[in-house]
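Researcher: Before we compare anything, I want clean individual predictions. No alignment, no superposition, just each chain on its own. First chain goes here; please echo the sequence and then give the C-alpha cells.
Model: Echoing the first chain and its structure:
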Amino acid sequence: MKDLFDEIDTHQPERQPIGEGAVLLRGYALQLGKDLLPSLHDIGAAAPFRHMVTPGGFEMSVAMTNCGQAGWITDRAGYRYDSHDPVSGKLWPPMPDAFLDLATGAAREAGYPEFSPDACLINRYEPGARLSLHQDKNERDFANPIVSVSLGLPATFQFGGLKRTDPVRKFALRHGDVVVWGGPSRLCYHGVPTLKHGSHPQLGSVRFNLTFRKAL
C-alpha cells in the first residue's frame, strides 16, 4: 500500500502570498517525514474525534480532537482551551515531534521563525461538513501566527478580512498544502465551505486539517 507521502514532490514548494502576513505553501507538508499519518491515528485512538456543541447548542458538522499542552473545545459554557480532554478527563495526547517540526518549519518559511505551538486542533471533514467564517481569537497572544495543514480530500479555503462583511477570497487546497497567517492578517475571518464528495488515494473520503496555535 502506498504511503501517505508517496506523492512527494522534490521541487521547492510554491510560496503564494494571500494577504499581508499570510502565505499559502503549496505541497509543503509533502516534503516532510512519513510520521504524520501514524501520529494522527495514535492521537485519534487516545482522544477520539467527536462532534462538539457550540454555546448556542448546535452540533458542529466537523469532528474534532486535539494534541499538545492545550486543546480547543466548545460546549454550552463557551469556546476555550483546556489542558484536559473533557470526555476522558485525561490530558490531551502530547504533540508528536513530526507535528512540531512541520508547524515550526512552515512558520519559519512564512516569516515567523519564533513560532512554537503548544496546541494542535485536528479537524476531520467528511463530505457535507463545513466550517463557517470565524476568527481564531481564543489564544492569549495574537502575536503568534496560525499554521493550518491540509491532508486528504481537496477543499476550498475562504480567507476574508478583519470584519465578517469584508470580501472573501477563495483558494483551492490540496493534500499537503499549508496556510500560515499572522501579523496584520492574524484575526482575519476564514472558513471552509461544504466539503464535496471524493476519494483521496491514501485517506479515502475524508479531509484532515491540522491547525497549530500558541494558545497559552
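Researcher: Okay. Second chain, same rules.
Model: Second chain and its structure:
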Amino acid sequence: METVPNGISATRIEHANWRKSRRSNPSGNCVELAVLADGGVAVRNSRHVTGPALVYTREEMAAFVQGAKDGDFDDLIGRD
C-alpha cells in the first residue's frame, strides 16, 4: 500500500471518493475529504479541485473533528 505524499495534486490521488459537508454553500466555500487506501484522510479546497491535497492520519483528523465539536475553533469563523 503506497502512502500518498502531502501536497500532491488532488487529481493524482487514484480512486479518491471526495465528499463535502452538507453544510457547504453554493459559493463553493468548503473543503472536501477522501479516505485513502492506507487509512489516511486527504483534504482539498473544493474551489481548486486540481490543487494540492493535505494528507492527515485518522488520529489527526479525529483530534481536529473533536476539537471542532468542542468549539475550539469557533473564534476562527467570526461568529458574534
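Researcher: What stands out in the second chain?
Model: Residues 62 and 68 are 10 Å apart (CA to CA). Additionally, Strands lie at 19-20, 31-35, 41-45, 54-56.
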